[in-house]
Amino acid sequence: MEYYGAVHSVGQVAPQLESQPRNYDPFGPGFFQESTYDFGDTHSRGLKRAPESNVRAQYHPRSGYHYVLPDHPPPHNLFQEMQDHRLQPERQVNPWYPFDGPGEWSLAKFLVENLSQTQIEQFLKLEWFKTRERPQFKSKDELFYYLEQLPGRGPKWQCTEFRLKGYETEQPIHLIWRDGLEVVKQLFSNPVYANHMCYDPHHIYNGQEREIGEFWTSDDAWNIQACIYFQGATIVPIITASDKTPVTRHTGGLEMHPLFMTIGNIQSDVRMKATSHAWRCVAFMPIPKFLVNSDYQTLLQTRLWHKCVDLVCSKLKIAARVGEFMVDPSAHRRFCFTPLISHIADLPEQLMIACLCDRVDPWDLFSFLKEAKKLHLSGIHLPFWRDWKYANPATFLTPEILHALHKFFFDHVLKWVKETMGHELDLRFRSQHKCVGVRHFTSGVSHVKQMTGREHRDIQRTIVPTMWGIVTPEFIRAVRAMINFIYLAQNPVHTDTSIKDMSTALSVFHEHKQAIIDAEARRGKSGAKDDFFIPKLELMQSFARAIPHVGSLIQYSADKTSRQKDFVQQITRILEWEETICLFELYTLLASNDPLLNVVFTEDDKVAGPEVDPALAWVSRVNPDAQRCLHAPRPVRNHFLKGIVSDDAKIAFNVTINPDRKRLTIVELQTLYDLVDFSQALYHYFTINYHGDLNMHSSRILLNAWFKFRIQLHSAFHERTIMPSQLLQAEPPSSEFSYGRCDTVLVQNNRSNVPCVVQVRAVFQPTALPIEAPALDQVLAYVQHFDIIGDKPEPMMGMWRLTRSFFHNVSQPQSRKRCSSIIPITDITHGVELIPVYDTLLAKEVNSSNSMEIFNDYFLNNFADKDSAAEVRFGSAIWSNPGPNVTERVREGPVRVRTRFD
């Protein structure tokens, strides 16, 4: 019998051992690359992978046990506890009790979520109800009484009033909060997350290099586990975040800001998404106005903030020292410790949190603040983390991607480029080819005052090649190094090599940053600056040090939102109702399936998506018919199941069942797309692959055509994670796009290891073939080729330079035509982005509809997206060393057989 971990008994009973199946995967599908483990003994588990992957894992030998307590009832997870509610007998008959059915429940849910209490009362007294059946609840008070009878109320919200002796405020100080430990217990026991949980520190090695991703793969996870005295204890890493933006709406003018909390056991790509509800609001922090000198206002507010966090997290700090039994999503009891591993905040708030005190009376504000400022300290003498075991602000104040990188880019890097390029920057951004899924800046970027993190990233994608021809080479190198650093810092998995590359990119920026000063691009209110005194720039020095301690930094970011509806005491009740409604909605969907226990689910591949919703995944497994009732982002479609798959099964393609144009003749398709040599290209493709004469059958061949298709890949960072598909365009000429709207791709066929870049002009499939020709009976693409210039990337840009591939007619030396060919769609390996080489100021006639046609030279953009960089690097390595293999293309008539580099 094989065992996972150990299940120890607490008390005077001999230890008991519970078995788990050999392929038990506590981390959920896709969390690791394989779900088969090598158990040397009970406490030593090595991860088996395919030999070519050469990946292994080393687990901590004393972590992750679950326990049986003699003479105690069996533990229940969150939804099993809901089944133990006192009204459960009535819900055996009517799952929506005390509401009479799904209709009345949906009405109650709508009223509470969308109307104020006054509006609910007005609605229930409408004349309309005199001629129609009323719901059971006749008033708002009855409605809220019904809500109080629902199971799953969750940790109770409460209101505490603070008074600071000797310091008066304009209004009473109210903290709206709930117990952080109870919130953590509820998250930890939620079966929705059962397939997305981790309990064991571990080291992962890919060959000789260690991979660092989730917190559990970091040094701190291993070291904390080693320091815990209790054999088999489970770490429940606490992650907090605060939003300093004051909340005043519906709060009677009282300023507050929310404090959020989640746990590091939940897989990072799940907890980072707002739709997974893995972040919980635990407090609304007051921001009072003290009746004191303005010099002391911030100091007193900061002390109050630490006092409030101290209260909210008081039981979590006790659990971090002595431990606490908790029930996990699979209804196993674990003995848990709760260290604080990360507080997500911007730089000013991090400075507020990282405070110390020394030497003088902290209550003598004048002398205390004076001495504190001498040491560059803020004057906070009781920080909330002072007695939180394992909490060290040097590590838990993790660098935050949104503020430290994307906001830095918008506030500084983009401004430097604007200063040097002026209006030309807007013209070039407007002229770039429109790609699906990426914002096109129709009005440019100069006049945008505020942007989201997504818009920051969209500008970062193309800012480097956009500068070509205007700014100095050293300026471009500095900006490119910073963009490279930003991209590398967002890697979900790091190795020693990637951390070194990230540090090198930052060093390159500092080597070339003088060019920014020389261009007078860094400016302030008084004119040009000659320094780089930017706190966020200095903060970047800590990124490389932080990753080994806490794991990849991209996981410490979240979409933290909350809704506020009323003031002080009333708001606490409303917050409880909102959470109760959310839990009860999911409960009723699953009420017909017993028990409410989420068994561990494994699958060969995990499909990643822009939104990860574990609740939807659970409902789809336990009660598939209820999926349509759950309002959530739908999972990303896996085209590997029913789409067109490449020969090596690493790439999937999809075209719609109904083509955009059906049963076209060869001449009709050639006319539709304005491709003068389409019939010749098809003839040569047929000749090479069928060795017959197409002219004999051309009049009987009909073609279906698609204006777009999808390509789907596996993640470059997690081999078994399937990424969302990418939509690629191959539209014919139209009134809006006179040349068509056609994207570029990377192609590699089976005859050569040399990839090439092409533009897809048409996607089609022959139908009603009069002959048996497998080469024709598949989806094909008519493409036009680009050639690589040189054997190395352009030194200044770090990008390959491409040029349109032409051939010249021997009989007409002055004429030239684009080199084209027909390929199976399965030869495509990735969508890529080309940016024109702007050698001079942009001509007025250039725009986004023709920029891919009127230029000849382009840069292959290796910042198009983070995941495609690996594909571009793969092509770069081969282009730098092409060897004897070259791609051959056959051309018509005076067309010659040409190689890639001749």
UniProtKB/TrEMBL annotation:
It comes from Suillus fuscotomentosus. Pfam families: DUF6830, Plavaka. This is DUF6830 domain-containing protein. InterPro entries: DUF6830, Plavaka. Residues 649-752 form the DUF6830 domain.
